[in-house]
Amino acid sequence: MFFRMTMDVFASIAFGVELNSILMKDVHPFAAAFDTVQNLCQKRFKDPIWRFARLTQSSEEERIIKREVGVMNDFANKVIDERCDRGKTSELGPDLLSRFLDVKDGEEKPAKSELRDIVMNFLIAGRDTTACALSWSFYELTRHPEIMQKVIDEVTKVCSPADEAGGPRSRTYSDANYSYDKIGELRYTHAVAMEVLRLHPSVPIEVKFPKKADTLPDGTYINAGAACIFSPYAMGRSEELWGPDAKEFKPERMLNEEGKGLEPSQYKYTTFNSGPRLCLGKGLALMEIKLALAILLPRFDFQSKGHDGGYQSTLVLPMSPGLEMKVTAKK
């Protein structure tokens, strides 16, 4: 469900279209193709002759990739064509695609293939990562009900208005304020999201290739083009970095003594990369997580059917198997 939700969110942000896949009985064809291609592309790492197989279409996997990429391209091209036609007769929308099409006089519009690749890049970067983070959030919160209650209490205090006489805040949440500013005030919920991603980073392993030879701060010499690999997963669980309680889920470590958000060093907390390579979608991802928690936790009771914390090692860190929940509307 979270993968469907983030796909819908990014389709709206990137394309300006509403997939509404979260309401569908079956997975949206674009989303299904997207999942299939990502899974099979990941398997290429274990196949030393995949480039030959792709060129000759000699393997079933490569034939499936070609077919499903065609489904994705057809969808993206259709949306791009519709957006270009709309731009001829009316104003472009606020979506990412429209921003790239909104060029100044004399400037050349990007080619359709470039627009498609830009949009796909954003979808790949933002859909799976946030969906995984949300699943791990509910995994940790159902294991720590006292922390879940702190999130609910904060959401009630910040987002639910008091009555006209200044009495207790409403717990119906029908008139709750989930504006950008209000979500930004959820400091404890922010700490929860950060702590989830410390223990369960959506991208567990990172690889960098320096264009030029360089020397790291500790004196390590790196050749140009050498693969430099670090693991946010391992670093997030390192007692050397986080102390003897490194493996404990403890959102308070992301807060200072006043209870305000405390962002650790980007070079210690590497979930979102660091420096010039800091993730462009960090703010959006954290806002999505906080917004989902703020809307869902006060309205529903979540009871996990049991999970051992296992995961699949792919480009991201999805739970294996999926996290089954018994969800009951609160009275």
Characterize the structure shown.
The chain is mainly alpha-helical and 331 residues long. It has a domain at 1-130. Helices cover 48% and strands 6% of the residues. It contains twelve helices and six strands. The chain has helices at 2-14, 29-43, 50-56, 60-89, 96-101, 112-143, 145-159, 180-184, 187-199, 232-236, 239-242, 282-296, and strands at residues 206-208, 214-215, 221-222, 228-230, 300-304, 325-329. The strands form three sheets. It has a two-stranded antiparallel ribbon. The protein has a two-stranded antiparallel sheet with strand order 2-3. It has a two-stranded antiparallel ribbon with strand order 5-6. Strand 2 (214-215) and strand 3 (221-222) form a beta hairpin. It starts with a helix and ends with a strand. The mean pLDDT is 88. Belongs to the cytochrome P450 family. It comes from Tetraparma gracilis. Keywords: Heme, Iron, Metal-binding, Monooxygenase, Oxidoreductase. This is Cytochrome P450.
Note the gap between the termini.
Answer: 23 Å
In terms of DSSP E residues, the strand content is: 5-15%
Backbone CA Rg: 22 Å
Helix content: 40-55%
Number of helices: 12
For the biggest sheet, the summary is:
2 strands, antiparallel
Shape: globular
The chain-level structural class is mainly alpha
Residue runs with pLDDT of under 50 for 5 or more positions: none
Strand order of the largest sheet: 1-4
- Element order: H for helix, E for strand: HHHHHHHHHEEEEHHHEE
- Average residue pLDDT: 88
**Count of distinct strands:** 6
